[in-house]
Structures are given as structure tokens and as C-alpha cells.
Specification:
The structure holds two protein chains of two kinds. By secondary structure, chain A is α/β, with parallel strands linked by helices. In chain A, strand 5 and strand 6 form a beta hairpin. In chain A, helix 8 packs across helix 11. The mean pLDDT of chain A is about 95. Helices cover about 25% and strands about 35% of the residues of chain B. The two termini of chain B are about 25 Å apart. By secondary structure, chain B is an alpha+beta fold. The chains are: A alpha/beta, B alpha+beta. Bound molecules: zinc ion (ZN).
């Protein structure tokens, strides 16, 4: 397979927006094209979780291509739930790596804030196993059960979980694209409203609008895709072998490391899917950065802070940057590209190799992407 | 309590409720029944449950005997990882409850390789002996 490079990236500010999803995605795409200085490409690969229900539009890739002024460029949509942005990136990468296309525009987005929270929760819960859903299981409920089991197994307390939110909110203050750009204190997190015991409001990422884009090309550029892996698991929690580790992350990471010929120790910065604060801790273990049960300790010691030896979520993560579901997997990749190219401004870390990790559903459809400065 | 309908595969996987194909290996599954005892693997109390459920909603993931896992509702006060619970069905919904003394005793005998029937027979024969009129079969059942 041929090498694939990222020629340009772009994203909108995440948060509440009055603009349409098409308009947000077009802004991200135009920014990526300008960043690349390339305005001609062979195809558009679009990631969105559920525009049918969130905004009431279907056959969305064609609507978008037309809106962007590229109706004659073949377009298709890729979906793996909340990791759809990474899935679209993967599909585009295979198309370029195989030589089928030379340049592909990847764009991903979601518009959610115009709906009520219960309605958004209902749409998100479509990803849950139907039987478990029939018992009232929501995404926070299943995440809470994973969290409870993790705390029990590894002796981790509520303070450690809260520190993820404190760290990521701090990083968010340095990111002009973040939904939340203010600090939260440990007390604020630990005293926030209980959502699904032991998860409180500030352990959960917000509902956001936003879009991200990247232009992939076979022509040499400063940043290349070193490896990518896809891992899956039973959507039903009751069929899983482990509650405290996500098989889908472990499988995706193994494939990505193998393809990139890298080890966890080679990664210098990572964007990790912290839809719920404890997921960041669990994922840093599943990605091989820390041994099982030791992720919280690394966090407490500051190893994953912006000035630590392995900064995790310099963007603020899903917690502070926000989580327009379909956009997130690609926004993480955009952040890593900025970090590798030295374009991350106030939150810049020193890195030549970076990783992004995206969770689809309740970790039933995950992606790991490793990028490298050439 | 009625046993819980489930399905099992030659690979050892058990699914409750029953599934046509094994979630682990993809082969067709056979129907089976599971005992109504288990232990809590994890749980949550949901304060913003979906429409149609009242708040707070307690949900537990229970491991049934035979290692099948199962999601059910229950009371907030009995929630603890590792706690043994009994599962009951009410209007097609499964609920867990903390085991009563009698249920613990039954479970103890079953786990010792005895049958539930045997324990019941002992209790029956003992109570009849106390009343002074051991019926035919009572003592025999207890010594089988
Ligand atoms: Zn099987």
C-alpha cells in the first residue's frame, strides 16, 4: 500500500451554533482545503452519526457535496456511531492507500444542541443493545456500570475520576475551538449533579455542534498516516468478557501499532475518547500507555497533563472541546496534525508521533490512528 | 420462581435472553433454562432515566449461575458488587432482590451438589415428624 499524507485540516469552533450542519461542515472543509492549498480532489468521505434524526436530512453525503459546490465529485457517508469521523477517515485512507483515489476530502460533523437533552439521549441510545435498552439503559447508565466495576477492581476513588475533568477543562482554556474554555475545580466536579451513580454531570461530555475536515493525499506532505486499526466488541455489556477494559480499543490499538511499527512508548501525544471521565483512564491503559489499574495514578502524578511526559487530550478532549458525535473522531485527528506541525499555539506540546482514539457506541466500534511527522 | 429462559452454545457461551446465534462464535444456539440466582457484577442508579421509567432507576448487571450475565432492575438499597441476589420476573421484566435466609439455604444445598427437591423433602419430613405422623415416603425421600 502507498503512503498517505494529510495535506490540510480544519474545524469549526465546537459548542452551540445557530448554523446548519451543512454550513458547519462546509466551513471545516473550506478551511482544510485552504490549509492544504488544494481545491481539487477525487472524492468526499463524510462521517455523521445520525443526520436523519438530529437534523432531518438523508443521503447526506450528496447533500453536502452539492452544498460545498462539488456535486460532481463522488461522495459517500461512513457511520460507526460516535466514532463516525474516524471511520470516514479510515475509509478515505484505504481509498488513497490502495491507489483508487489520489486525493480525498474527509469531513465529519453533527448538529445536536437545537434538540432537548432527553431527545438527544434517546437518539444516542439507539447504539445500545435493544434488550439492555428495554431496561432503561442509557449511555451514561452503561458507562456508570463500567466505571463502578473499574473503581471496585482497581481501588480508584471519585477524586481520581474528577481529576480527568479538571485537567481537560484546563486544556480547553487554551483551545479557541473548545466548547468550554473555563477551568473547573475538583470540588465543582465532585459536587455536580449525580447523573448515573457514580457519574456526575461534570464527568460527562457536553452536547455540542461542530465539524472537522482533512484532505488526504498520496503526494508527500509533512504529516503521514503511520497506522490505523479498527476494533469491535459486543454492544451488549452482558456479552463482554471484561467490564474494566475495552476489547475494541485493545484490538484497534494492536492493529495500529503493528501497521505503524510502533510501540505505546513511541507515542508522544494522544487524543483519547473521554465521553465519560473514567473512559480516559481506562483507555490510556487499553492503549498500552500504562498497565491495567495504573491509569489513574499516572493522571494524579501529572504524567498526562500538558507538561507531563505523555500529554493526553491537549485539546481539552470530549469533555471540554465538546462532542458533536460524528465530528469528534476527525477533530481528534485534526488536533494531532496541529500538534505534529507545531500549529497548536498555547497548548503546543513537543511531539513527532501522535495517536488518536475514538469510541463508537459503548466501545463497540473503536478506532486508533497513529500519525507521524515525516 | 420460574427458571430464566436462555440459550447455550457448544463453545460454552450462554445468552440470556436466548439468542439464535452464539454471540461468541456465531454457531446456532440451543435453548436452555438458568437458575434464578446470581451475583451483582456492577450497577448504577440512574437519575435521569428515559421516558417510561421512574427516577431513580436502579439497574444491575448480574452474573447468573452458569456465568451468563443479565441486566435487571432492583432496589437501590441492595446494590453492592459481589452481593448474591435472587431474580424474579414480574410482567416480563426481571428484578433482583437480596436473597432471603431460606433462599441462601436452598442455594447452599444446591451448590453442595444436592438437589433443591432433597432439601424440600427434608424440611417436609422434619415438619411431619414434629407433628408425629411421618407419611409414607417422607423419611425415604430424606435419606435418598
Ligand atoms: Zn459459541
Amino acid at each position: 500500500m502507498a503512503e498517505v499524507y494529510i495535506a490540510g485540516v480544519g474545524m469549526t469552533k465546537f459548542g452551540r451554533s445557530e448554523r446548519s450542519l451543512l454550513n458547519l461542515m462546509a466551513e471545516a472543509a473550506r478551511t482544510a482545503l485552504t490549509h492544504a492549498g488544494i481545491y481539487e480532489f477525487d472524492a468526499i468521505y463524510l462521517g455523521a452519526m445520525n443526520p436523519e434524526e438530529f437534523v432531518g436530512d438523508g443521503c447526506f453525503a450528496a447533500l453536502f457535496a452539492d452544498y460545498l459546490g462539488y456535486a460532481y465529485v463522488p461522495s459517500l457517508r461512513v457511520e460507526t456511531g460516535t466514532s463516525s469521523g474516524a471511520a470516514a477517515f479510515f475509509a478515505a485512507w484505504t481509498a488513497v492507500a490502495s491507489g483508487h483515489y489520489r486525493r480525498v476530502l474527509v469531513v465529519a460533523g453533527e448538529k445536536m444542541t437545537h434538540l432537548s437533552t432527553p431527545r438527544v439521549a434517546e437518539i444516542l441510545s439507539r447504539m445500545i443493545d435493544p434488550y439492555e435498552r428495554s431496561y432503561g439503559a442509557t449511555m451514561p447508565a452503561l458507562a456508570a456500570m463500567v466505571t463502578r466495576a473499574y473503581m471496585e477492581e482497581h481501588g480508584v476513588g471519585p477524586k481520581e475520576l474528577a481529576l480527568v475533568a479538571v485537567k481537560n477543562h484546563h486544556n480547553g482554556t487554551l483551545n479557541p475551538y473548545a466548547h468550554f474554555q473555563q477551568e473547573v475545580s475538583l470540588e465543582e466536579v465532585m459536587e455536580s449533579r449525580m447523573i448515573a451513580d457514580p457519574l456526575r454531570l461534570y464527568h460527562c461530555c457536553p452536547i455540542s455542534d461542530g465539524a472537522a475536515a482533512a484532505l488526504l493525499t498520496a503526494e508527500e506532505q509533512p504529516v503521514k498516516v503511520a497506522g490505523m486499526g479498527h476494533g469491535t466488541d459486543h454492544p451488549a455489556l452482558r456479552h463482554r468478557d471484561s467490564l474494566t477494559s475495552f476489547r475494541a480499543t485493545v484490538a484497534a490499538a494492536q492493529r495500529a501499532y503493528k501497521m505503524a511499527d510502533k510501540r505505546p512508548g513511541d507515542i508522544q501525544v494522544a487524543e483519547v475518547h473521554d465521553a465519560f471521565a473514567p473512559f480516559e483512564i481506562i483507555s490510556t491503559e487499553d492503549l498500552g500507555f500504562f498497565p491495567p489499574g495504573k491509569g489513574a495514578r499516572a493522571l494524579v502524578k501529572g504524567r498526562t497533563a500538558l507538561d507531563g511526559d505523555l500529554p493526553i487530550n491537549p485539546s481539552g478532549g470530549l469533555k471540554a472541546r465538546g462532542h458533536p458525535v460524528g465530528a469528534t473522531g476527525l477533530a481528534q485527528i485534526v488536533e494531532i496534525v496541529w500538534q505534529l506541525k507545531g500549529e497548536a499555539e498555547k497548548r503546543q506540546v513537543e511531539a513527532r508521533v501522535g495517536l488518536s482514539h475514538s469510541i463508537g457506541g459503548l466501545a463497540s466500534n473503536n478506532w486508533v490512528t497513529i500519525l507521524e511527522r515525516v | 420462581m420460574d427458571p430464566i429462559p436462555a440459550s447455550k452454545c457448544h463453545c460454552g457461551k450462554i445468552s440470556a435472553p436466548p439468542a439464535p446465534f452464539c454471540p461468541s462464535c456465531g454457531k446456532p444456539m440451543e435453548e436452555c433454562l438458568l437458575p434464578t440466582y446470581g451475583r451483582i457484577l456492577s450497577y448504577t442508579v440512574l437519575y435521569s432515566p428515559p421516558e417510561g421509567f421512574s427516577s431513580p432507576l436502579s439497574i444491575a448487571l448480574v452474573e447468573l449461575e452458569g456465568r451468563a450475565k443479565f441486566l435487571c432492575h432492583g432496589e437501590e438499597k441492595g446494590l453492592k458488587i459481589g452481593r448474591r441476589v435472587a431474580i424474579e420476573r414480574l410482567d416480563e421484566i426481571y428484578y433482583f432482590s437480596t436473597l432471603s435466609l431460606r433462599e441462601r439455604a436452598e442455594l447452599f444445598w444446591r451448590r453442595r451438589g444436592e438437589t433443591q427437591q432433597k432439601l424440600k423433602a427434608i424440611i417436609r419430613s422434619l415438619s411431619r415428624r414434629v407433628r408425629g405422623s411421618p407419611p409414607p415416603g417422607g423419611i425415604r425421600a430424606a435419606s435418598q
